[in-house]
Design goal:
- The complex is a heterodimer.
- By secondary structure, chain A is mainly alpha-helical.
- Chain A is 78% helix and 0% strand.
- Chain A is built from 13 helices and no strands.
- In chain A, helix 1 runs antiparallel to helix 13, helix 5 runs antiparallel to helix 10 and helix 6 crosses helix 8.
- The longest helix of chain A has 36 residues.
- In chain B, helix 13 runs parallel beside helix 15.
- Chain B has 15 helices and 18 strands.
- Chain B has two domains: 252 residues, D-Maltodextrin-Binding Protein, domain 2, CATH 3.40.190; 215 residues, Dipeptide-binding Protein, domain 3, CATH 3.10.105.10.
- The longest helix of chain B is centred in the N-terminal third of the chain and has 27 residues.
- By secondary structure, chain B is an alpha+beta fold.
- Chain B is 31% helix and 22% strand.
- Classes of the chains: A mainly alpha, B alpha+beta.
- Chains A and B meet through helix 2, helix 3, helix 5, helix 7 and helix 8 of A and helix 1, helix 6 and helix 12 of B.
């Protein structure tokens, strides 16, 4: 398996390089001048030119590209054009918040979605199944910003149980309380998705011959589900969780905005609005690296839940 | 096993509750002002900062030779700040300022001297280090006569000169030692003499300011300011409603103001300077290169209807290309009365009886797109098709400077003297696309002589006459259609007492001074 993981990681290098090039080109195709964003509309053309030179934006595009790639492979993603802080510094400040929220949401969604889907499959076309399907449909239909605002109104403003603003530097209690609503908001859609996939996968597995055989052998239902059905039904669920984990890192932007949480999603939107090229490039590398890592971990997880999976 | 889980959960809950209980009283003893803003700080160098989120705290951290009395944006209310007195020569080209003694910079950066003032104003004049350099181009020499005296010599008299050495943009005084030692990092850890000192900035979260104990007007009543970055307007309102914020940006909309005015515990502040909204007409782009078409556009825009749409409190109507209330504003040229018949007749006369199409790059911002949609509807009634290219704000800013637009909706707030608006928007040296460009989108060049003459005129009456004539000529040429003045709106808790009456704030955010207090 080690050789497999190393091979996967090595394969990621050309992928990253291709992506770096694409991002470099795409970011510069977008109209908008970072110098105007930084200096404001009152700045004279002379001041704008001077700033462009200071930021290296007056250099030929190929010079900028070579500098960017050379610096990126040495781990230097440059400084934000907007704040002057290093991209790595900015990313490292918000990264824990993104990872924390993503991990909490995935955990919540798995803990709720998996039983919901399993129960739905076991009681197919009976009321638990209908409840599970309705809950899933609601979860998938509600936009996260609507859920977020409704939760804030009910639990933060009216009842005062939880804070509206995410606070950093407060007590651990403050921090945990700040995490509750964003986790529910982000986790709700994923819960619905996992429940649907788990239901459909369980239904497939439950119709397999070996399940019928196991039943005929008199294996108690709880053990049958836990040992024989659930593990085999997990592969599609792991795939969905893996894929979603990767996209959640970027998709959490609305939740981050509604709950005033720091995060990579918000950082990328800010960088895009400010035409902060270096920040955008650095963030894209981080996103790509995450997606690649999550994919590798997902592949490893297949082997853990299903011993028939071999790495070659 | 079950019991262990329950025990663990119980222990966890107790630990969290205890942790919160210990942390809470520490801040409860302090007076903490919690401010919610819509965006991150980009930098706190006063000579660079142009965003509202940056300018607010800069106003709390820095002083200048003179200042606008807290709560006022009127140049008539300028009063001593770091300078305790000043004198000007009869022709207005030489100014001498006597500094206060023992004014302390934040931290260990020493006491203010004339060298700091000389350094700061030279820095403000340098385009490599300042966004506002062009405003200081008439500063010939800035010298320290002695450690507490500064003399400034001007190339020619400058209208509203004191505004350039006031607590606004380039007029702010920085610590020379700190600025030289920190270089580009000064924007991240600025050092001034103001009532609050910078302590911490955390990306996407907050900036923290603590009171400056050694402030020369006395230690502030507020101990700490938490400046929180909350991009969602709804979340800011919810945070205010739940008591997590004391002061926050408001929406510049009449209905919003009326709704919040009814809420107990909240106060709405509507104040100057407004951002003056104007439609600039590109006089070099067909069909607007025909003055009759521009006049037709002006007569087809119903400004009263737009003002009703925006709201009387937040968007009072303008009457000149110089914003309402600016020194030198004159409305004697009259307005372009709403007259569809006249608009159609002018179009026919110009050879466009079947109507015309005008291109316009429009920002998708809330402050612009809805108004442009109203204008689009109004123009259609006169047979003028407004072909809007809706883009995001940075793209709009760039394209507007590349002459991609026939009609440019623009909002701006400047130092309240006619010269700033006339020079930046209507002087030929500011025409977009030229090496000295600023924001002359209309390519208007009919009043250069009057704008230049007013700038160097020492006699206020003659100066006013030049400005009046400049506004008349620009009106006659139909370079722009004045719309309305979009006022600043802030929402605050009734526990927050500014310590002054807020009618204006040039930095756009209410000043927090040593007198500002939070009642328990």
């Amino acid at each position: 398996m080690t050789a497999y993981v190393i091979r996967r990681l090595l394969l990621a290098i050309p992928t990253l390089l291709m992506m770096l090039t694409m991002i470099f080109v795409l970011v510069r195709l977008v109209p908008g001048d970072p110098a105007i964003t930084i200096l404001g509309d009152q700045a004279s053309e002379q001041a704008l030119r001077s700033l462009r030179a200071e930021l290296g934006l007056d250099q030929p595009i190929y010079v900028q590209y070579v500098d960017f790639v050379f610096n990126a492979v040495t781990g230097d993603f440059g400084r934000s054009l907007f704040t002057g802080r290093t991209v790595l510094e900015e990313v490292l400040v918000v990264l824990p918040f993104t990872l924390e929220l993503t991990a909490a949401s995935v955990l919540l969604a798995t803990l709720l979605g998996l039983p919901l889907g399993t129960v739905a499959a076991l009681y197919r076309n009976l009321w638990p199944d209908y409840v599970s399907r309705v809950v899933s449909m609601i979860g998938l239909s509600l936009p996260s910003f609507v859920v977020g605002i409704l939760l804030l109104l009910a639990l933060a403003v009216n009842l005062g149980w939880l804070p509206v603003i995410t606070k950093n530097g407060g007590s651990v209690g403050d921090h945990v309380r700040s995490l509750v609503l964003p986790t529910f908001t982000l986790g709700i859609t994923m819960t619905a998705l996992i429940a649907r996939v788990a239901r459909s996968s369980m239904l497939n597995v439950l119709s397999e011959d070996y399940i019928r055989t196991a039943r005929a052998k008199g294996i108690p239902p709880a053990r049958l589900i836990r040992r024989h059905a659930l593990r085999n039904a997990m592969i599609p669920v792991v795939t969905v969780v893996g894929l979603y984990f990767g996209t959640l890192i970027g998709n959490s932007v609305l939740t981050e905005i509604v709950f005033s949480r720091p995060g990579l999603g918000k950082l990328i939107v800010g960088a895009l609005n400010a035409r902060d090229y270096t920040m955008l490039q650095g963030l894209m590398v981080v996103f790509a690296a995450f997606v690649i890592l999550v994919n590798v971990f997902t592949d490893i997880a297949y082997g853990l839940v299903d011993p028939r999976v071999k790495y070659s | 096993m079950t019991l262990r889980w329950k025990e663990a959960l119980f222990a966890g809950a107790i630990a969290i509750a205890a942790d919160a209980a210990i942390a809470a009283p520490v801040l409860a003893e302090q007076k903490v002002l919690r401010v919610g803003m819509g965006a991150d700080i980009s930098g706190l160098d006063p000579h660079r900062a142009s965003l509202t989120t940056d300018k607010g705290p800069i106003g709390w951290m820095f002083n200048a030779l003179v200042r606008f009395a807290p709560g006022s944006a009127d140049p008539k209310d300028i009063e001593p700040d770091l300078a305790e007195s000043w004198t000007g020569s009869d022709n207005g080209t030489e100014w001498t300022f006597k500094l206060r003694k023992d004014v302390k910079f934040h931290g260990d950066w020493g006491v203010l001297t004339a060298d700091d003032v000389v350094y700061s104003l030279n820095r403000a004049k340098d385009p490599k280090r300042s966004t506002f350099a062009s405003a200081y181009s008439a500063f010939k020499t800035i010298e320290a006569v002695d450690p507490l005296t500064v003399r400034i010599e001007l190339e020619h008299p400058v209208p509203g000169f004191l505004g350039l050495v006031a607590n606004y943009h380039g007029g702010n005084i920085v610590s020379k030692k700190a600025a030289e030692a920190k270089g580009a990092d000064f924007a991240k850890a600025p050092i001034g003499t103001g009532p609050f000192r910078f302590v911490e900035y955390v990306t996407q979260q907050h900036a923290i300011f603590l009171k400056h104990e050694g402030y020369f007007r006395g230690a502030p009543k507020i101990d700490r300011i938490e400046y929180r970055f909350i991009p969602s307007e709804t979340s800011r309102e919810l945070a205010f409603s739940s008591g997590e914020l004391d002061l926050t940006w408001g929406r510049r909309e009449q209905r919003w103001i009326e709704r919040w005015n009814k809420r107990e515990g909240s106060i709405i502040d509507v104040y100057q300077p407004g951002e003056y909204r104007t439609i600039h007409l590109n006089t070099t782009m067909a069909p607007l290169n025909d003055r009759r078409v521009r006049e037709a556009v002006a007569h087809a825009i119903n400004v009263d209807e737009i003002v009703t749409f925006i709201g009387k409190d937040v968007g009072p109507k303008g009457c000149s290309v110089v914003p309402t209330g600016y020194l030198g504003e004159d409305c004697s040229a009259g307005e372009y009365a709403y007259d569809l018949k006249k608009a159609k007749a002018l179009l026919t006369e110009a050879g466009f009886a079947n109507g015309v199409t005008i291109k316009s790059v429009v920002s998708n911002s809330n402050a612009q797109l809805p108004v442009m949609q109203v204008i689009q509807g109004q123009l259609a009634k006169a047979g003028i098709k407004l072909d809007m290219q809706v883009v995001d704000h940075p793209t709009y800013q760039e394209l507007s400077r590349k002459d991609a637009s026939g009609m440019i909706f623009y909002g701006a707030a400047r130092f309240p003297v006619a010269d700033t608006f006339l020079s930046e928007f209507f002087h030929s040296s500011a025409i977009v696309g030229t090496p000295t460009a600023i924001t002359n989108f209309s390519h208007c060049a009919v009043a250069d002589k009057q704008i230049d003459a007013a700038r160097s005129e020492g006699d206020p009456k003659k100066q006013m006459a030049y400005w009046v004539e400049a506004q008349r000529l620009i009106h006659q040429e139909v370079c722009a259609v004045p719309l309305f003045n979009l006022m600043q709106v802030f929402l605050r808790s009734d526990k927050l007492d500014y310590g002054y009456k807020l009618t204006g704030a040039l930095n756009l955010v209410p000043p927090i001074t040593e007198l500002t207090d939070l009642k328990k």
